[in-house]
Design a protein that fits this description.
Blueprint (H helix, E strand, L loop, with lengths): L1 E4 L5 E2 L2 E2 L4 E4 L9 H11 L6 H20 L15 H11 L5 H21 L9 E5 L16 E5 L15 H10 L3 H13 L3 H5 L20 E6 L12 E6 H10 L5
Antiparallel strand pairs: 1-4, 2-3, 5-6, 7-8
Helix pairs in contact: 2-4, 3-4, 5-6
Amino acid sequence: MRFVLADKNLVVQGRTFEGFPLLIDDDGDAIQPAQNWLWDVLVKSGRATNPKTWENYGRAVYDFFGFALTNGYDWKAPAVDGVPGAIEAWRDWSRGTLGLQASTINLRLRVVVRFYEWALRKGHIEQMPFDYVTIQTSRQPGFLDHVNASEGKVSSPQVLLQQKKQSIQFLTKDQITVCHESLTNLTHQLMFELMVRTGLRQIECRSFPDTYVFDPERRKDLKPGQKIRLHIDPADMKIKNSKPRDIDMPYDLMDKLWTYSVRRR
């Protein structure tokens, strides 16, 4: 079984689907019905247009089917008393063997749950292989809660793990210094500094365009020590959620980037 992201040669009805996930078995055929589900949920609905979202969905369902096929689990069969079914075994393997966080596992589980719900509607399975439980949410009352009979209760797949709130871990100044000094490559040093000092994520840093870099000394409105407000746009680089936003670039960091810039040479 292989997971492949299509190149620009995948064309359907005149549209190129570069980056679309393909699930291929050992004979070179599409793994069904998982592949059909990916087309339905990612293309026909028209809601998921980001290739990164395509990849995340594809990898989650690929990982599930790869585990089930390798370990001899029937993905259609519900769990029997005392014995985990395919999805429970995959969940426990992800937690125990891989050591993934509950939040990461639940993100993948929700993708596979969506596949199962689709499979039930399409008649590929006769019943869901797991149960649903009713949970009480902690959300604040909304404007129309007086006409909502749910009273804050929602139905949730029982296979999901309980998530504990975790505090955000920040690097200390000493840790930042150690990390920076351990990097001997100038490119890596600048990338690390760019992320630490502006808050860019790694995918944003890796796609940060050289066209955003300029010589701050030529700007009469800027002075050393000043923060430079930059507007970053998903049309120019990879940005989480594909939403433009502003970042503050330290003057001295912009000067370093300009010295390193290919446009300056």
